[in-house]
Structures are given as C-alpha cells and as structure tokens.
C-alpha cells in the first residue's frame, strides 16, 4: 500500500506541475528575472529582485559527465553551464531537459555570458568560445561548424567573460586581459590577433573575471593587483596592490569596487581613483567573489565564514530615568535607568550620567557609579552632601547600543527637588542596618548614615524618640530598634517603670563601625 505524500512533497509536486504546464508557453520567451552572466550583471552584483523558493523543493536535476565548477547563466528560458568533463550544457530552465551540448578540448571552469544570441565561455584548452544560444540544426549538439567564433590565448582560461557595448572582456592565465569584438569582423570563425580590440598585460595569471561599469573594466591578477582599465582603449586608469593573489572577481556598487585577496582581506576601493575606502581582515584567504545587495556586501572566506558588511540600521534607544520626586541632604539616594529598543529591555552602554543643579552647574559625574542589575536596568547610587544647596537637580543620561547591524542612541533626563530639612515630612526611623538608617517619609523611603547628619536624641516619650539632625527632626519607635546594638537604650527600657529620667547628654556614636549608628548616653537620676 502506498504511503500518502507529506505536505512538503505535495507542494513540490504542485509546483512542478505548474512549471511543466507553463514551460510550454515560456519557450522562446525571456524569464522575468534573468541571470545572463557570472554574478548576474556587468557590475557582478550577484543580486536578484526576483522571487525565490522558501523550501528545499527540488524541481529537477541534471547529471553532467564531470564535476561542476562553473556557475550557471540563465537567459531565454535556458540554463547554460560548463563542466570539468570539457562540456558546455544548455538545459531547459523549467524542466532540466538537455537542449544541447558542446565539447571543448579542456575542462570548463569558466562561467558563461549570454548576449545577442551567443553564449561566450572559456576553457582550459586556452580558448574562448562564442557558441550559438540556440542549436542551429536542432540535433542537440553544437557541431564545430556551428561555433560562431573562437579566440586562442596563450594559456588556460578560467576567467568568466563579461559582455558590454559589443565587446567581450575576459582574462587568461597568460597574464592578459582581452577586449574582443562580439562579432567576428571577417566572419571566418576565428578572432585573429589583429581583430583584438585591446590587450592589457598584468604580472600574473588571471583567474579573476572582469566587471564592467561606468566605462571601466575592473579585474584582479595573481600579481596581487586590482586593475581599473579604460573599457574602450585598455589604458590603465589605476591599480591597487594587495598583499596576495586577487583571484576573486570584483563587484562594483555605490562608487566602490569590492574584492577579496589571498592576504585574507576584503577591500573596498574608490571606483574612480582606486584609493582604499576600507578593508577587513578575515581568518584566511578570500577566494570568494563579493555580492552586493540592499546596501550590504556579502563574501566568503577560507576561515569557514560568510561575512556581511553594511551600514548599521539607525534607530532610537528609549531611556527611562527614575530619580524620585524629592530627596534630602545626607541621603543615600538611588537612581534607576531602563534602556530599551522597540519596547524590549536591552543592555546598553551608558556613556553619560551627570547631575546638574538648576543653574546649569554640573554637580557631579555619576557615570563611573553605574551598576547593571537586570537586563537593560541600571542602578546609580549617590550620597547627597549634607551641605548641598536646596533646589531642583536634573540627572542627564546618554546611552547607546551598537552592533554590526544596529546603531541606537538616546538621551533622557529627569529632575527632583532637594529639601534642606526632613521637618514637616513626618520622618520616622524604621531600621538601622550596618550603620545605614532607613527613614520613612510622606514622600517615600530614604537612607542615610546617622553620623553624617549628626543625629542626636532630644527626648523619649513612651516608645517614641525624637531625634534632631542637621536636616531636621526624625521620630523613632524604640521598640523596633535593635536594642542589643544600642546598649544605652536597652538600659533605659529596663528601668523606665520605676524611675524618672533626665536626659543629660545625647549624641550619635559610631556603634556599628565607621558608618556608625545611634548610641545614647543617658544620665539617670532617681526621684528624691
């Protein structure tokens, strides 16, 4: 019993049926988005605006007689490609059916260029071939008499031709770049030496394939150089010397030439002058030819990586600052900053955290005090001086988030009022921990060290102590204070039922170390 097809296979079959039906209408027509030469166009962008499959649905395969190094060209409903069995193939783009083959006398590493009804390709038999796009007699084989023309160089041709303005540009391992006529001038089927439009001799083998843009031909050589030549005369416009062989083919975009080298680098050169714009060092040789699309440059390296270069997307970084509404002299304040992108908390770099007085005077730089406590959330502690002027203070925050693809920047600020006194804010001492006092007010909780505000008890009424400080009056419920750490208060509580107390001296002592807590020195006098 046959198993039912998976949904993926059913989709593939449906697509294949559509392709087969539509292929009959496509014969002799031009595909909406063709790829007629190496890396698609004369600038070697390697970029297509056409649609592409979103699944690995194989529509067809064709088995050649050897390894395939050559890259396909697609034009007029056909796929053209070379193989290391010496053959050049033309296949139906929709079905993969063989249309024709042509056999050279050497391996075909070169990738074809299709233009004006011709397929131009090189071979390791030293020749460049111009073959008819359509088989003249329809027998499936391009015979010797059907070849439009050949051109013989002095060494193997690995370079892939580029066709522009009625000329064919191609390199050879004889160190030369050639500009050949697209049409054989005398029609004898051979481009003779006298019919070559121009030749430029480099200092090394030419595996690189020429790119043509804005009246110039750009190509690399194994003499370590990148060349820019006049398209029509072959005159040298500029050279740039890298640190290794330049086997990859240049790509031209946005006024720059992008190319790799065996010195491990990717280069961006000024198209007009050859001046270095930027370079990047990968982990090994760069033999890959760059592709350019959507403002990015893509290239591979022998370090097993594919690289994408581009301009980071610029977007805002949201910064939320929380400083509270009011603070007091001597307080150990804590400010908080949350950074986010598109409503998502993001770890950023806070480059500035400065506190300003209302006059615009810089009070202090808190940048070095920042601590991250959660994703995108930062704490900034600040001990407010006891002599700080009363008034409005503003914390200004600047931050950024920068990666290879995103650049986000932001600025934010928040203000608070600094009060000179706690009096009138119903301040209660609720805890003493490691010398730090927690004080609850009508505006919230603050922390301070008692020795820094010169705290001293002025009276005790039942369990309520009145504490006078440099910043005003604080109340405290002595029953909630750790009496073990404040011996004088403990002694007072033991004897309070039978004695009357006169407060002879009160001060804040450093009972818990350098920070200090409150200690009381009480003088007891019995009723007479």
Oligomerization category of the chains in this entry: single chain
**According to CATH, what is the topology of the largest domain?**
Thrombin, subunit H
Flag low-confidence runs: 1-7, 13-32, 483-528
Q: How much β-strand is present in the residues? A: 35-45%
Radius of gyration over all CA atoms, rounded: 41 Å
Q: Profile the largest sheet.
A: 6 strands, mixed
Give the proportion of residues in helices: under 10%
- Number of H/I helices: 2
CATH architecture annotation of the largest domain: Beta Barrel
**Total domain units:** 4
> Which shape, going by the Cα principal axes?
rod-shaped
Distance between the termini: 115 Å
* CATH class membership of the largest domain: Mainly Beta
Class by helix and strand content? mainly beta
User: How many distinct beta strands?
Assistant: 40
The gist of it:
The protein is mainly beta and 528 residues long.
Layout of secondary structure:
Blueprint: H1 7-26, E1 73-75, E2 78-82, E3 87-92, E4 98-103, E5 113-115, E6 118-122, E7 127-132, E8 149-152, E9 162-164, E10 167-171, E11 176-181, E12 198-201, E13 211-213, E14 216-220, E15 225-230, E16 236-241, E17 251-253, E18 256-260, E19 265-270, E20 276-281, E21 291-293, E22 296-300, E23 306-310, E24 313-316, E25 318-322, E26 326-328, E27 332-341, E28 344-345, E29 349-357, E30 362-365, E31 371-374, E32 377-383, E33 391-402, E34 406-419, E35 428-433, E36 436-441, E37 444-449, E38 456-461, E39 464-469, E40 472-477, H2 487-495
Parallel strand pairs: 24-34, 26-34, 35-40
Antiparallel strand pairs: 1-2, 2-3, 3-4, 5-6, 6-7, 7-8, 9-10, 10-11, 11-12, 13-14, 14-15, 15-16, 17-18, 18-19, 19-20, 21-22, 22-23, 25-27, 27-28, 27-32, 29-30, 29-33, 31-32, 33-34, 35-36, 36-37, 38-39, 39-40
